[in-house]
Write a structure and sequence with these properties.
Layout lengths: L2 H20 L8 H16 L13 H28 L2 H22 L7 H26 L11 H27 L3 H23 L2 H37 L4 H7 L2 H12 L6 H19 L1
Helix pairs in contact: 1-8, 1-10, 2-7, 2-8, 3-4, 3-6, 3-7, 4-5, 4-6, 4-9, 5-9, 5-10, 5-11, 7-8, 10-11
């Protein structure tokens, strides 16, 4: 993997971790938060399109096919992930999703996109995935010790975590295919996706509640979280634009696992700044992920 691609993906992980930390505690705002995020992302990054390659050589039909499909997949990902958080432990859903997503992405990239990985890179990919999942299960042990009652049978957080992983793999592989096929610049592609997410999220809000209540909740969310929304609107697209740029110059089977370093960064922040439990285990999992990244970079 090239040094440039590695730097891009690691920078994306830092940006992703940063907006997750900033937006911590707003997940209960649901679709209205996502709506504002999509609007701000579109407006803030649209001004950068003329300076980042414009719309590229893609035909209008190719551009629309790429961003339209991606927008639907991203909204599906958001909804499934939120559902997982609602019905089960956050850490379980998150760890399952972030472990399953890159694993499936690697499989599909090799089988469908025809990418090839060295034996060393495969070991690195597996190390990253295992380390990311280990971070989630450190949190899961803490939640079990808090006295939370467990329901018998298959944990719904695992089910929705797996579905989220499928969605992550789907949009990651599709975006790699779209950018390589139609040569759409990453910034224009990201702006197109967020712009098309807006009507989809609007329909969801209207379908879930009366129109007045739906749009009234937008005002409440803005007044309560506008600073976090501005940070989200800048950092969330930035993290994925860096990933999109990386997958144009490196195999998506390598990019997808490395971007999950963000999970480790957030976990370390929780251990050192928020004083969450088991810092030693978090560091051990982080070392495993770092070792995997080094193997991939070789």
């Amino acid at each position: 993997m090239s040094v440039l691609a590695l730097v891009l993906v690691l920078a994306a992980a830092v940006a992703h971790a940063a907006w997750n930390i900033i937006a911590h505690g707003t997940s209960r705002s649901g679709v209205p938060f996502l709506w504002w995020g999509a609007l701000l992302s579109t407006v803030m990054w649209a001004v950068a399109i003329p300076f980042t390659g414009g719309w590229g050589p893609a035909s209008l039909s190719g551009f629309c096919a790429g961003v339209g499909t991606s927008a639907v997949l991203h909204v599906a990902y958001m909804l499934v992930l939120q559902r997982g958080y609602a019905v089960g432990d956050l850490s379980t859903a998150y760890a399952t999703a972030r472990g399953t997503g890159p694993l499936l992405t690697v499989v599909v990239a090799v089988v469908v996109l025809g990418e090839r990985l060295s034996a060393v890179a495969v070991v690195g990919v597996l190390a990253v995935i295992v380390g990311v999942v280990a971070v989630g299960f450190v949190d899961r042990e803490r939640e079990r010790g808090s006295g939370t009652r467990r329901r018998p049978g298959l944990d719904p957080a695992v089910v929705f975590g797996l579905l989220t992983g499928v969605a992550i793999a789907a949009y990651t592989v599709w975006d790699a295919f779209a950018l390589r096929t139609w040569e759409v610049p990453p910034v224009a592609y990201m702006v197109g996706c967020t712009a098309l997410e807006l009507p989809l999220l609007t329909l969801l809000m209207v379908a879930r509640r009366a129109r007045r209540d739906a749009f009234g909740s937008l005002g409440a969310v803005w007044r309560m979280h506008w600073r976090r929304l501005v940070a989200f609107g800048f950092l969330s697209p930035l993290s994925y634009i860096l990933v999109l740029t990386a997958i144009t110059i490196a195999p998506v089977a390598l990019v997808a696992p490395i971007r999950e370093v963000s999970v480790v960064l957030v976990s370390l922040f929780g251990a050192w700044v928020l004083r969450e439990a088991h810092p030693g285990r978090r560091v051990a999992a982080s070392v495993l992920v770092a070792a995997g990244v080094l193997l991939i970079a070789m």
